[in-house]
């Protein structure tokens, strides 16, 4: 089996990364940073998000496992003290793989023929440096509402515990092939009106955002922020691809939610 290890870059994470590399090599595994079967991330959820984007060209063949050197992460759920146990699991036992849905985002432009396609593990947000954004929202090809407010967030089920949660969105179990649209401070009065509740869309229900007048937007894909100019539309749906996580022990989603937010 081929493996890669990534680190957040701090001293503790770098040290742990080196140990994992040595242990796994001693166990006969091959270090392959281009085509790993398993990617072990050391740091936090941000480190795993970065690794997901670094290896998103081979999602069908790579699975991820995360170790947290800070607080318990949602993706990074192994503790540094458990590293030796984890390494033995990786080297000696066939592991289970769980697949979670991803969000596909296609940004199209007025001045370009080709759009840009992105995959998000957590979410895509759309905001403006000017303040309020005004977007017509279409669902499954039909006009739904016109949104005026700070921005919009489209999240995956596993990303529903991240930014989406801070916006009052629901927490969705990752077995649901769906995406969630949550508003950021919509303007609601006699003139402007939106539904106000987060919407959960199933697979194949494409959500299209069409700017009314301004065409320059700040679009985030997970931890990555980009300025997009001349935007004609932003199309979001459940992606055909999935992310794969290596599971060596049961750590049910709702247990992770309780340990992260309730306990
Ligand atoms: P960061 O360093 O600002 O950390 C954001 C926090 O979000 C960390 O505590 C991380 O553990 C947590 N997190 C990330 N993914 C999560 C998930 N799926 N479920 C629960 N918690 C999660 O930034 P980063 O580490 O680069 O992560 C980028 C993420 O930060 C974005 O994808 C977005 O979800 C999140 N974010 C949240 C808010 C907010 O809650 N108001 C605002 C901006 C960004």
Can you give me a brief rundown of this structure?
The protein contains 5 helices and 16 strands. The chain has 263 residues and is an alpha+beta fold. A hairpin with a 2-residue loop joins strand 14 and strand 15.
Residue runs with pLDDT of under 50 for 5 or more positions: none
Question: What is the CATH superfamily of the largest domain?
Answer: Probable inorganic polyphosphate/atp-NAD kinase, domain 2
CATH architecture of the largest domain: Sandwich
Radius of gyration: 20 Å
Tell me the β content: 35-45%
Order of helices and strands: EHEEHEEHEEEEEHEEEEEEH
- How many angstroms does the end-to-end distance come to? 37 Å
Query: What is the CATH domain class of the largest domain?
Result: Mainly Beta
Any descriptors?
5 helices; five-stranded parallel beta sheet; binds nicotinamide-adenine-dinucleotide; Rossmann fold; eleven-stranded antiparallel beta sheet; single chain; alpha+beta; Tumour Suppressor Smad4; 263 residues
Task: Please outline the helices and strands.
Layout (H helix, E strand, L loop, with lengths): L1 E6 L3 H16 L3 E2 L6 E6 L1 H10 L8 E6 L7 E3 L4 H10 L3 E14 L6 E5 L2 E5 L5 E7 L2 E14 L7 H4 L11 E9 L12 E4 L4 E5 L5 E5 L2 E5 L2 E17 L5 H10 L1
Parallel strand pairs: 1-2, 1-3, 3-4, 4-5
Antiparallel strand pairs: 6-7, 6-16, 8-10, 8-14, 9-10, 9-13, 10-11, 11-12, 13-16, 14-15
Nicotinamide-adenine-dinucleotide binds next to helix 2 and helix 4.
Report on the structure:
The structure is a single chain. The protein has 263 residues and is of the alpha+beta class. The chain has two domains: 2-95 and 248-261, Probable inorganic polyphosphate/atp-NAD kinase, domain 1 (Rossmann fold), CATH 3.40.50; 102-240, Probable inorganic polyphosphate/atp-NAD kinase, domain 2 (Tumour Suppressor Smad4, Sandwich). Helix content is 19%, strand content 43%. It contains five helices and 16 strands. The strands form two sheets. Strands 6, 7, 8, 9, 10, 11, 12, 13, 14, 15 and 16 form an eleven-stranded antiparallel β-sheet that branches. It has a five-stranded parallel β-sheet with strand order 2-1-3-4-5, with helices on both faces. The chain is elongated. The protein starts with a strand and ends with a helix. It binds nicotinamide-adenine-dinucleotide.
